[in-house]
Amino acid sequence: MPPDKRPRVYLARRPNGLETGGRGSINTEIIERAGGINVADAALGEGGLYDASLEQLLAWNPDTIITVDRKFFETVRTLPGWSQIEAVRRNRVFLSPALPYGWIDFPPSVNRFIGLEWLSGLFFPQDRQSDLAETAAGFYRLFYQVEIDAAAREPLLGPLR
Q: Which of 20, 38, 59, 109 has the most Cβ atoms closer than 10 angstroms to its Cβ?
């Protein structure tokens, strides 16, 4: 896929959203594998977690933000300066499902398989060929021996988009 068609993604960690991962870190590798471009790559280098500044974020201007922090997700639209970022303006800030384990960031385990499916659908919805809720239910059945019915889906998986 041409680089200009890939989403420019920022991983927001912590309640202020200003911690992120460098290229190839265990925190961002799933974003990169799903086809996203980590906007923090050039500035932060490889591996590890880094503190970013709002000024850096404004310069990077990601079109998509993925977060693992519920508080950040709930408050990002009210945090000073964040409304200038394209992802926030376009309402492309997504909270990763995290039960029983995070789908994106931590721990690095089988939970990232379903995270890859979720991110791929967010990044390239025109290419999605399966129902994510059904795929997630099958994943939970296979790896966690848990059946997810319609009533349990939203609290457990969040709003799968």
A: 20
Domain range enclosing 42: 3-157
**Phi and psi for 90 in degrees, rounded to 5?**
-90, 5
**Number of domains comprising the chain:** 1
Give the CATH number of the domain where residue 89 resides. 3.40.50.1980
Is there a contact between 140 and 148 (Cβ–Cβ < 8 Å)? Answer: yes
**Other Cβ atoms closer than 10 A to 84:** 12
DSSP 24-40: T-TTTHHHHHTT-EETT
In this structure, are residues 103 and 118 in contact, taking their beta carbons and an 8 Å threshold? Answer: yes
Residue with tokens 């995270």: 115
- Alpha-carbon Rg for the chain, nearest whole angstrom, is 15
Q: 45-75 pLDDT, tens per residue?
A: 666 788 899 999 999 999 999 999 999 999 9
